[in-house]
Every structure is written in C-alpha cells, then in structure tokens.
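Example complex used in Figure S2.
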Amino acid sequence: MVGARDARTPIMKAVVYKSPCRVEVQDVTDPRLEAPTDVIVKITTSGICGSDLHMYEGRTPSMEGMVLGHENMGVIEEVGTAVVSIKKGDRVVIPFNVSCGFCFNCERGFTNACLTVNPEGYHGGYGYAKMGPFRGGQAEYLRVPYGDFNCLKLPGKPGDGHENDFLLLSDVFPTGYYGTELAGVVPGATVAVFGAGPVGLLAAYSAMLRGAAEVYVIDCVQARLAKASDIGAIPIDFTQGDPVEQIFELRSTTAFVEARRPGEEKMPGVMCGIDAVGYQARDREQPEKERPTQVLEDLIRVVNPTGRIGVVGVYMPSDPGAPSDAAKHGQFQFPLGSLFERELRLSTGQTPVKRFNRFLRDLIIAGRARPSFIISHRLPLAEAPDAYQKFDRRSDGYTKVVLDPQRQAA
Amino acid sequence: MVGARDARTPIMKAVVYKSPCRVEVQDVTDPRLEAPTDVIVKITTSGICGSDLHMYEGRTPSMEGMVLGHENMGVIEEVGTAVVSIKKGDRVVIPFNVSCGFCFNCERGFTNACLTVNPEGYHGGYGYAKMGPFRGGQAEYLRVPYGDFNCLKLPGKPGDGHENDFLLLSDVFPTGYYGTELAGVVPGATVAVFGAGPVGLLAAYSAMLRGAAEVYVIDCVQARLAKASDIGAIPIDFTQGDPVEQIFELRSTTAFVEARRPGEEKMPGVMCGIDAVGYQARDREQPEKERPTQVLEDLIRVVNPTGRIGVVGVYMPSDPGAPSDAAKHGQFQFPLGSLFERELRLSTGQTPVKRFNRFLRDLIIAGRARPSFIISHRLPLAEAPDAYQKFDRRSDGYTKVVLDPQRQAA
Amino acid sequence: MVGARDARTPIMKAVVYKSPCRVEVQDVTDPRLEAPTDVIVKITTSGICGSDLHMYEGRTPSMEGMVLGHENMGVIEEVGTAVVSIKKGDRVVIPFNVSCGFCFNCERGFTNACLTVNPEGYHGGYGYAKMGPFRGGQAEYLRVPYGDFNCLKLPGKPGDGHENDFLLLSDVFPTGYYGTELAGVVPGATVAVFGAGPVGLLAAYSAMLRGAAEVYVIDCVQARLAKASDIGAIPIDFTQGDPVEQIFELRSTTAFVEARRPGEEKMPGVMCGIDAVGYQARDREQPEKERPTQVLEDLIRVVNPTGRIGVVGVYMPSDPGAPSDAAKHGQFQFPLGSLFERELRLSTGQTPVKRFNRFLRDLIIAGRARPSFIISHRLPLAEAPDAYQKFDRRSDGYTKVVLDPQRQAA
Amino acid sequence: MVGARDARTPIMKAVVYKSPCRVEVQDVTDPRLEAPTDVIVKITTSGICGSDLHMYEGRTPSMEGMVLGHENMGVIEEVGTAVVSIKKGDRVVIPFNVSCGFCFNCERGFTNACLTVNPEGYHGGYGYAKMGPFRGGQAEYLRVPYGDFNCLKLPGKPGDGHENDFLLLSDVFPTGYYGTELAGVVPGATVAVFGAGPVGLLAAYSAMLRGAAEVYVIDCVQARLAKASDIGAIPIDFTQGDPVEQIFELRSTTAFVEARRPGEEKMPGVMCGIDAVGYQARDREQPEKERPTQVLEDLIRVVNPTGRIGVVGVYMPSDPGAPSDAAKHGQFQFPLGSLFERELRLSTGQTPVKRFNRFLRDLIIAGRARPSFIISHRLPLAEAPDAYQKFDRRSDGYTKVVLDPQRQAA
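Predicted assembly (1640 residues):
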C-alpha cells in the first residue's frame, strides 16, 4: 500500500544548511513514499562533495533549511507499488542526478538533464541548489524517485567492505571518468588533469584504467600530488613554474619524443585535457586571488591541436560571490581565438552517472578499481558541521569526507 | 623526369596581394615540380573565399606578394615520378588544406593540422597567411604537394558541367558540412545556422542532405535569407527581433511542439548550432559595431541543454584590427557559465576537407547535391581586383565569386 | 485509482490466431490496467506486418488464441497512477517492443532486448510468439506496460491526417531505418537493399533521407520495384540476371566510376548492404524453392571489402517449416571465408524502435518524410481474416495492410 | 639518386618457402629501391606468425620461392628521394599490411584493404600468399614501399631493450587489440577470448589494458592458460567441459551476479567475444578432427544478446586442405538463426595495424605494456627451418618464435 510505513519513528537526523558557512544536524520529518515508483533508502554512507562547498560558502542561490547530500548509498527500506526490480533489504548506490528514465534527454542517456523531475529546470539532484525539491541524503533516510531507474544494486551488505568504494559511484568516480570520456582518452593517450581533488584524482585514475600512456596531474598541494604519483600519474606542482612549460619539458626529454618523426615537435603537449577545478580556480601568480579561467587558459595551451578538453569542474551562470561583475553573470575573458586556431573541442556539463556507474561498479567487484584511496575521513553524522568547516579549509588532510548516519558519534 | 617541363611559357598570370584592400593581377614565374610527389595543375576555376577577405582587409599578418587562392580545381598538367594514381589530363579538385598523409594528424584524418608541410605551423594551405610557403591558385597553374593524397579525381572534363559544383568541394561545401558534423546533425535533428554567407548556406544545405527536420538560418540580408528558404530552411531575419526568441516562438507554435510530453517545453531551442560567422560578427543592436561573441552568445541560448555547437566561422588568436585590446589577442568575454550549465559541447577548427570531399563529390555526380546555387559570379582572372572589392562590400549581389584563369577578360 | 474503468463494455473485438493460415475476429475481454505504470490505448490503427505472416503460416511455435498485432497507435483511454507524462486523450504510437526502460539493456538503448517484461526471454512484444504475455493491438483496446516509456506522443488527433504515416513509426519505418544504421549509411554512401517489401522500401527510403548517393533495391515484383524507383532508388530485377552482376555493371558505366583512381575498380559493389528478406528467401535459380542464405550470399559478394551488412530480415533459431534439418535448427551453409576475407561486418537483430521513432516522427511532422507510400489497404477489423489471406499470397497488390478497429465494416 | 646503393653485397640470406612443410635459408638478391617513396630496412627482428603456418602446411595457394616474414622491424638502411620523415639509422617497426596511404580505403583508415599496392587484390602484405609481390622480412634486408607511411619510428637502437616488445607492433599486438576493438571492449566489460596463442593472449592483454572487468581465455594447453592467468585473465580449459557452461557457472557464482537485478540472469555470458582461432578450430568432442565453426558456435552461445563478436582468427574463402567440400570453398554450417535472435554483431577481417601501432608503442615506451611475454624463442635465421617445424607442432614450448637475421647461428 502506497504510503504505509513500518514502526520507524517519523523523526530522523539530517544535515541542514542554515546560512553561509553554517550547517547543523537537526531532527526533520522522515521521508515518505510519494509516488508508486518511489523507494525509501536507509542511508549507510553519504559523502560531502566539493560542490557542497559552493553552497556552504554561499556561492549559490540561498537554500536555507535544505537537507544536504547528493552522494548516497544504503539499503532499501521500502518500495512503492510500481517498483519491480528492487526490494527491501537490497544494497544500492544512487546517482546524484534525479532522473525519470523516459524523457527526451533520459532516453538518449542524458540523465544529467532530466526534463521531468525538476519543475524549475532541466537537472534534478538531491540536496542541491536549483536542482529540484529533493532532500539530500546526509540523513538517516532518503526518498529516491523512480527507484527502478535510479538505484544501482550492489553485492553484499553494509560492513562487507567496499562501502567507501561503492559510495563513490554516486558522483565523483563517474565524474572523474566522465572527464576522461569528454577528453577522448583512449589506450596510449596522453592526458593532463588540472586539479588533484577527489574528482581530479579519480579522473587521473580513470585515465589509467582506460589505458592512457602518460597522465599528468597539476596541483599545488603536496599530499594530493603524492596520491597522483601513487596511482601511476606524473605529478606537476604549479608552484614550481608554469605547469604547461613543465609538461612540455618532460615530454621533450622522454623516450616518447625520441620516437617522433619530424613535425611532431609541434605537438609538445597532450591530446586530452581535463578541467577538474572549475570557476573557483586561483591565479597561479597570485594564489590568494581567484582567476576563473586560469585552468582553461592553461588547458588551451597544453592540449595539442585537434585534441579535446573535458570540463567537469563547475562553472556557474550566476555567482554572487564572483570576483568581477562579468563573472557574477558567468561571463569570462576567454582565449577563443586560440581555441579555434588549435582546432579544439570543449565539452562540458554535469555527469550522466548512470552511463558509467554499472561498469565502474563491476571494476570494483572484480578488484580492478579501488577509488576509495581518495577518502580521508569517515565520520558519524553528528560531526558533519565540524567536517564541513575543516573540508572547506582543507585543513588536517580533510581531502574527502564521508558520513555514516547509522553510526553514533564517539 | 623530375623537373622537366613542356613548352609552356615560364610566366603566368596570378592574383597577388599588395596591401590592405589591394590585389593585382601580375605576371609571376610558373610553378615547377619540386618533389617527386608533386603535381602541377592547370587551374580551370579558383574561388574567392570569405576568409580571403580577412587577408584582403589586412586582418591577418602581412603577406605582401603572396599569390592568393585556396579553392582550386583544374586539370593535371604534370606529375612527379612518385605519383601513381593520377596522370596528365585528369580533372581534379584540391582541398584547401595542404597535407602529407602520413604524419600523426593526417593519419588520424586531421588533414587540417598536418605537421609535415608547413615549417612554421601545424596547418598547411594555399595562398594563405601563416599556412606555409604555398602559392595560391588564383593563377593559371598551381603546384600541389603530395599529389596522390591531395587531388580528388572528377569525372568528365572542363566544360562538361558541374564545374562550379565541383569547385566548391575544395572548401566551402565540406566546411559547411563539417559544421553539421561538429554540431551532431542526425536525421530528424533541429538546427540553427548563424550566417547565410556561402559557408552558412552550405551548412544549412548539408543539414538538409543529412535529413534534419528543421533548419533555421539567421542573417539580415534578404537575398541570402531567400536562398535559405529556397533550399527548404527557415529564414530568420535578426533585424526583426532577437533571433533566439524568434526561433523559440516558431517552435512553440508548430505541430512539433504540440507532440511534446511535459517537460519538453524546457527545451524550446534546437539541438544543433552552427557558427558560420566567426570573429567579425556584428552587434545586433548596433550593427555598425563588431561584437565578436554575438553569435556564440546567441548559440549558447538557442541550443538546448546537451546539444552541440560547431564553430566553422574563424576566430583568430591574433587580430591587429580587432575592436578591443583583448580581442586583438584573441581574448573574448564569453558566457562560460551558461555553456557549462547547459552541458554543451563546443567544437572548432578548420575543416579536414579530405574526410568529406569524396562523399560530397558522389552526391554531386548522383545529382543529389547542387551546391553551386550559392555562386553569384564567374569571372575572368583579370577582373579579380574589382571582384575582391565588390565581394568585400557585398555590393551588387557579390555573394560568391569564382575566377576562371583560362578565360580571357571581355 | 488503479483498475477503475469507465462505462466501456468489457467485451471488445480482436483478431485472434486459430491455426495455421486461419485467424478470426472474436469477442475477447477488454484489457485492464494491471500495474500503476500501465496505460490503456484505444486503437485507431493497427498494421499487419510481414512477420505476422511467419506466425500465420505456422512457421513459429504455436500460439493458438493469441490476439495479434504489434504495429499499434491510438488515443490514451486510461492511465495508471504512476503515469506522469501522458493523459487521457493523448494521441500516441507504440513501439512493437515492450520494454521497461531501466534494465541493463534498456538503459543502454537496447529496448529490443528488455530483460524485465518477458518472463521467458529477453524480448518483449505485442501479440507475437515467444515475445511475452502481451496481447496484440489488432483490437479495439490495448494495454501498454510502462506507458511513460513506451508511448510516443503525436500531434493532432485521429483523422487529422498522417494517421498512416505515424502508424509506421511502430515498426517498419524504424526497422528500415535500423537497416541503414547497421549498414553504416552516411551521406554519399552506396547502398544495396535486398527485398522491396515494406521494410526494404523503407530501408531504401531511409537511405535517401540520410543522404545516400546511390541506392539499389533488388526484388522481382514489378510493382515493388516501381515504388523503389519512385523514391529515387535504382530498381534491380533479379529475374533479369544475377543482381550482383547487374549492380557491378551499372556502377562500372556511371560517371561515378569514371572519377575513380586506379585500384578502385577492385571495389565494384557498394559499401552498405541491407537484408530486408530474411530466412524465407527464395532461390534465384529456382524461385519455387526456399534458399535461406540466398540474400546473404549475394550481399557478401556485392558489398565491397570493409563494408557493412545490416540484417533486419528475420532468421529463426528454430523453424519447424524449414526446408532442411539444419535450417530447422537455424543452421545455414554460409560463406564465412568470404565474409572474413572481405573484412565485412554483419549486424543483426530486432529494431530498438525507441532509438529512432521520435526523430522519424519529427521528419513526418516537418513534412520531410511520408512513409505511408507503402500502404496499399486500410480496412475495418472485420476484414482482417481476408486481408491476412490476401497479404500472405501478395495477391491484388496487398503490399501493406493496416486495420482500423474504430471503423465499421462496409 | 633513386636506385643507388652502397657497398653492401647484393646477396643476402632469407627464409624461402619450398613446399608444404619445408622452408630453407637461401641466398637471394638484395632488395633495391624501386620507387622514390621506398625505403630499405636492415632487419633486426622478424617473427614467425601463426598465419605463416597456414602457408607452411600448404593450406594456401602455392607460393614456391617466396621469402617469408610479415612481422618485421629494423633500422633504416636507405631511403628514396621522396621520403621526408625518416632517414638512414632510424629504428622502425613495419605493419604487416603494405599500404599506400592515399586510396579510398587507406584514407578512411582501412590500410588492411589497400587498393593500390597489390595488383591482384585489395590487401597488401609481405611474404604472404595472394598479398602482392612483396618479399618477406625473414631476411637480412627488406624493401618497404611508401616508407613515410609504413614505418613507425621507435626510440633507442637495437640492443636497447624492448626489441621483442616493439617487434610485436608489426602484427600480433595490434591484431589482438583489434579483436577487442571489434568486440566493443570498454572499461568494466566482460570478455571471452577463444584461443590462447599469441593473438589470443594479446587480445586478453589488450582487454585488460582497456579496463575490462572480467576476461575469460579458452584453450586446452596448460602453458598457454597459465600465461592467461599471469596477466590477470581467467583461464578456461575446454577439456574440462563445455567452456560456455564453465563461464556461465563462474559468472553465476561471483559477486557480480549477486549484484544483478531481476532479469539479468538471462544474460549469463559476456558482452564481448573474440575469435582468435579461425578456420583450423578443432572439434571439442573429437580434438583430432577439425571443426571450423566450433569457436563461432561457442561464441554465439556465450556472448549475451546485443553483444559483439570480433573475429581476428582467419577464415579462408578457398582452402584446399579443408575437411569438407563446402569448407574447401569457405562455406560453413553456421547458426545464423541464433546470431540474429541474439541480436549480435559479427565483425571480421585483417587488422589495420596503423590505426593502433602508434598508441600501443607509446604504452610500451611508458612501461605500461610488455607484450613480449608471449615470445618463447629468439633464434638466428639459420635455425628458421627447425623453428618452423617445431612451432607447427607446438613442440617444446614453441609458442612464439622470432628470428634475428643479424645474429650468427651458434
């Protein structure tokens, strides 16, 4: 019967956005089935994403009272009467995109632009500004619309291991992977990834999984660069000099270049570029200052003619906190002339998680992928306010935090 | 024997660039075979391209003394000793790109970025600034490097008809077609083409050939819009109001939209956008003023989320005549935030003509394509200076001029 | 409320399979909503398909009592409580495949292999042997599972015209189109289509829509070949000699071939081949005899090395009526050595209608496609038994029959 | 000057085919430059390929007197006057396909079907039956036509290491890789490779490089299966039972399957199948008997509906030594009905080596690929007759032999 619930209390704990740089753990009403296609998931892990910090810092339209959290996994608690492929007790991970499965965009595989679920736009997401009326999963329970379409089944049960690996299937692993897809990474490819946060590292990791020959990762934080090195990528510290020149130099002295035929010295860079930073990029010369197009400018220089650039770092059409009037409206000074002369392709957008999550899950199951190397902290829900603050400051090695709503605070 | 020549006189007529807004027909030395892979072509038709006007107006680095002309066809006059697939007397059309066929880019099909032929860059072209030491074909004869690779054989002989159709295989027909390729035009697609010059009209024509359902062509010149209408496209006159709003309005009242399911009203535009204008776009509000990103701004509004934009209009990394300092260096204010939010793909660059010219030739032979509808004038070489001037001013219906070097001036 | 119905009588007329070569129009119970995602459609047109004849002739496992009809369109009569994108009164056309939209195959676009809907296999279809428990639509009403996913909205209302065009979106138009997709038809392509029945003609028509340069259609029935000619294809009558040799001959004398460079005479055939006949092909030498691989043998000869063959004609793994023991088990003598030596690709299978029906609908709406030229008869339901018999014998020009269940027999 | 040579003696050693099961090392004339685009390569390594054994056993048209060897690498000894990208002393590896680079097939990337170089067919190859007038490279020197197009430059010099890895770029590494390309292997894919000879093992290795989740390798030789296991694949010994059932069983008990949603048990096999055996397949029940379609029958069973099969094992249109009359003419009994019902794609043909060799080279240089694990013996030219015999019998672990023409026999 639609709407019926068991003996669970109708009050649960959840992380609620209050105001810029302030979130709280509060009691909120339990989610309920609202349609026959809905399911309710008992959350076992919910991640804090870099893009949650855009909201946290007040860099998006206001969302006071919103329950946060779009990286979610757990166990099915209840299913609507129309749901046929999952049942109570199934372990599932849920894409950050809420999508219907049958609109023009979903049926072409663009679940990142569902036309059905969000009355005010063409994206749906959990606990996110402008992404529709969906509460987030940094909470004990979550309502998931179109459960058959949006839940990816997982083997085992909570505690069987891989919990952290599987959690990353909700967003950052597919998002890093999508960067490699947009950038056209093929076996033998040369790749530059700007940004060694969770998405950048998993983009580099995905490039390795896809058989790239050389993967450069550009950042300025030593711990992140060390992780890039651990997975077989080549770290580039941009505080040591123009990262584009560093890559040119490295490539000109490797055996690879020795193998080139005349003319190929005109292609000193890489064929595939990935922007895993987005609009909050900093000026390399004056790191205290934002320079939103710093990464794209570098990418247009380092990606060889006829190459491709995948942009998975976020750029906003409206950004009240931007450093200039133009940037407040999503307008940026951009080297379009070079983009054209170099015959580049620039592909952007949120990730259609469902296009990739199943295949990436199977790599985790087969033991061929372990994306959880990026996770630094696993904490009870009660510690969320503190974790947000530390993650926002990148203090104490808070590189990626996941919350466990079923665990009591110490 | 390499280098041997018949009784032709070593002096020929050619169109030579002198200074901004001045070209002359002069006597120059005949071209000679310089390598065993070269061929010499007796030119029967050579077009004047919109991009020739960039040079003509002094909007490119100086090229005094250069013989112009990158849209060339004719009859093989002489072949080098290594040439095996064509022989004296063969009728051929030649891509504007000069390419080797064996470098990293050529072998992947990117003949628009040949690494071999141009010592100073990664593009080769005839009679064009920064495209290498290749004389153009607005002349009686032309040397073509790598003749086996660069000549496309044609049926019949000069005068058999189709001369003007086949000439367009050298550049603007494949370039218009490339716009549709970059924009992802498939059967049933909706398409907006900005600019109804030769490339824009042939982009619209190519979209029709590929089975597009609706093709909107945006311009302000009535004669051009009439041609768009003739080929089955829907003309949009931007002097009658914001062209993006006009397209939204037309689509919202057609039967197509009536068929939509809820949510699809969030996609009032088209899926495929083509920029056939480039950096000399004008401000729609103040048409006497250049506004280099006017077309791209409109495209980002009119192309639906998850759509694609193909840019075949030229943007220059260096433009001494640009309206602002930033634009002089190829930097433009650009709505990157919207591009990302709308999950668009932006693909740019010169056209790899060889990827398409053979298939388009076969459509002409089969009687299924007649691109010559865009040609307004066919003139003897001697009239080139006058033709350049009139074409530059778009006066007297000079929409597309081709030169016939074998015809005496009246 | 799920299950509620209006005042319709619970008895309706439907075409029921009785025994080989016998169908009857009978009273059957009305369909009911069985799940919240179901819809009930009042059928305005239902086609008789060539593949219905496989059943009619007893060439499939027995299906006594089955209501036939997988080519269906009509008006929404009732929707389940989970349905959000369509409502009572909407005009819709329904793919012949029944599919869920969320299984591994559906989410990758293979709605032709849905894993959810048919308990006994990986295909779902209406009124078809082994395709699941779904009644067909040669009836007054039809239950459609997963209505949001399976209904394609149409403009207008019954009687507004295009009824016959839109009906063909349920199967044969997308199926013909799928043949061109599998065969890799691109603008400028050369194509050979074997069979000028409804699917073959619409494959040829689709090839033209996609911009093919030359489309050959092979059959022996003059009326069909005349239709091929009407749409711009080149008819080949195989009773006048080996059709492969006929195509070689035609191509060797056209202007196209004149344009070739040395070596290309080794490619006298076409690049794209389509089998629109299937396992009931006849021996060209002895047309009274079945020769199941006749068409594939010819295709392997006529398709040039590196070309592609799309097989949309049906081959059966089990065929009680086959001419040999091997063929009874779907085993056929096959020129695999030539297939390999010629480096061909052979792609097969039922059509995933949803991948194409929306785009093809838009071509009909835009006035760019009129597939109904293949329909010979539109008849009331009562005449179905007679129509089946005549269509099976191809008598009296019965090339394609559609039934109108809302029309009274004369 | 074309044709000039240095002081090398005009006599060299080469492996010459004499009669079935007999090759000899003989003195033959040195190769000479025959065209300005030719180069002469001093061979440092030349492999013996499984397909050489087809000739060795007399299973191809007669080729008495032919110098064998299509897997070749070495150092440039001399270049023709038209050659620009390589020079004397360069280290290179050469694709087995001889191709021109400018015909219709080459320019589309199908160098496996060059129309120019072989007067009698549409394939060119070194030292191979029906592949044109090209001597093989199991010799001290080799003439390579179109040197700019056909030579892939390598770093280092002979003796620098990687000699055996790089040699495999001439054929079997790209061929194994091509199998994965035809089979559609993507990250997370499930793959079955039939045959664990050099091509099969390198197909499995390529599948791993491309990020496959599960790779099954089917053979009956323990040493080969052990190598499959070493590279992370799952060995299946078909002498232990029907390999298809073994794979179904393994997959049904892995965690992967546990993760499935209802319906997915209908897909117990893999999505990608590779035939690395070809027409000399043996009957699994009676291994002493050839059963040319054994592998394809198994593949059609084990590949899930909508999957793809890549055939890189050779099937011959004419095979004098075949076990049946039909097979002598390349005709085989084939489960076409199942192929269609399962909606499979079957892609065949020789490998276009150039499409892949550069990227695979870069993986070797980067230390990410070491294909030489398949090589069992490196021998001087003089031992070729003995090596052929042992390799043909697969005796003494002769799994893959390469010859070193610059090394004296012990």
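Confidence is low (pLDDT under 50) at residues 1-5 of chain B. The longest strand of chain B covers residues 39-48.
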